[in-house]
Each structure stands twice: as C-alpha cells, then as structure tokens.
Known about the structure:
Elements lengths: L1 H4 L1 E4 L2 E14 L1 H4 L27 E11 L4 E4 L22 H9 L8 E3 L12 E4 L2 E4 L5 E5 H7 L15 H11 L3 E4 L4 E3 L3 E5 L8 E7 L2 E5 L8 H4 L11 H18 L2 E3 L8 E7 L2 E6 L1
Parallel strand pairs: 4-5, 5-8, 8-9, 13-14
Antiparallel strand pairs: 1-2, 2-3, 3-4, 6-7, 10-11, 11-12, 12-13, 14-15, 15-16
Bound molecules: zinc ion.
Amino acid sequence: MAIQNRTYRVGDVTIQKVLEQKLRDVPKTFIYPTAKPEDFEGITTQLAAEDLEENREDLILSVHTWVVRTPKHVVLVDTGSGNHKQRPLNPSFHEQNIPFLERLRDEAGVLPEDVDYVFNTHLHVDHSGWNTVIKNDRWVPTFPNARYVFPRVEADYYGSPASHNEVNVPSLGVFEDSVLPVIEAGLVDFVGPDGGTYLDCFKFIPTRGHSIGHMSIQLASGGETAIFGGDILHHPIQVLRPHLNTVFCEFADEALASRAKILRKLAEDRALYCATHFGGSSTGYVALKDGTYTWTYA
Ligand SMILES: [Zn+2]
C-alpha cells in the first residue's frame, strides 16, 4: 500500500507513518456524544473520501505510529495499542495479534533495536501499547535501546487510583503493562509539566485536556515545522467543529482550549500536521478561511 510508505520531509528530517490498524464504521455519535444534529449539518461535503465510510455517515479512524528520522536518530511518536494486551472492557484493543513490528521492518526499515527514542504524547491505550511486548509471561520494553519520553504527570496520574474512573475505563491496565515496565527498566526520560525542547529539533508543548498531561510535539528543521498532535484532534470533523470533544477527552474545558491553541498555531505556522487517528495519509494542513478552519490532506 503505497500510501503507508509516503515519506514527508521537514528540513533534514523525514516522517513516515506505519499503520497498526484502521477502525471502521465508527458512529459519529459515539465519538462525539455531546454533538447536536446541527453540528454535523453540511459537514459531509467538506470531508474527504478517506474520512467517511461509503454510507457517508460513519467515520474511518486509524491507529498508527510515526517514524521520524533525524540525521542522527530514529524516533517513534506514539505506539498504537500493542499485541496480546488484556482489554476486556475495550474490545477494539483486546488480545490483538497484529504484524506491526513486521510492518515497521518492511515498510520503514526499522528493527526494534534501531529505535533511539519513543515519544508518547500521552499514556492512553492506543498511544503506548507497543512500548512493551510480552516475553516469557512478562511485559518487557519492545525497543531495548530506546529512551522512552513522556509527560511525568501522565505516569503519576495513570499509576494512581485517581485515574480509575469512568472516562478512563478504556485505558485501565495500560499503566501496568505498557508504562511501568519501561520505567522499571530505567529507560524513561520524563517531560516536566512545562514541556520543553528535546534533541534540539523537538519541542514538547503542553496541551492538557484530552488527558491530564497530554502534550503535542513540534518538530522544527531547516525553517519548516511539523506538529504531532496526539489526540488534540481525532478526526477532521474537529478541525471544522473545534467545539466538539470526543468521548475520550477527560478534562473537557481544557481539551477545548488546547485544541484552539494548536489549530491557531497550525494555521499561523503553516505546519504539517501529523494526526494520530485521521485516515488516508493522516497528514495535512490547517488553514483559517473566513473565520473557520479548513483541513487539506498532504
Ligand atoms: Zn488516541
């Protein structure tokens, strides 16, 4: 599938998507439970073929990893949902067996031991799964030579009973099988609450709300920029209707404010947006036109 192998260049850094899975036939009203019928009026014509099923109603979503190659390092941004994880309350991600590591090798030429850094925008079920694999009944780091980099506040929260609440049911168990093993292996560089630069060309930008310490990651090289937005946006619908949070957004008001901040930045900077759940190429550009945002796939 050629589309998965498309490589984007930002200065002297390349970006490539490796698919874990597509999520098909997802009802809009499930993802956006607070939406009113008028929120979806006229929206279909503004969406691309890769955004909607043939019925032009249900959503297509993707779960994937971004492979980022700087002149010196191989970096993965977000790691999907992983294999063999027990998610009985979340059937989409329960006991999966997906040849993701084979795709990483065949499509991006990356073996687990080649990975220098793993960045997690946040520690939800579909962003940290491939942090670990199971070996001899134990969860161990998938990428043994990598530094794993993620917000400290995420680890503190999901490692505490405070996170065992209704909105977080989809990610129950994730801390124990996908986060704690890399912490215990001494492989984690925690990002503080203010974010900051990392490896010169990356910057962690606090975008709290979808989760307690969610961060977006900016890449800048050669005068060009890209932003990996994690779950600031789940689907292009939210570029067109930024007031819609998803069913998975834990802190609603802050999620709205963070989405507004990143959309404004994307439009002003003309940055390449690398989405975690958009279909198609999952990359594109946000523009501000007559007071509303538009989305165009790259
Ligand atoms: Zn997600």
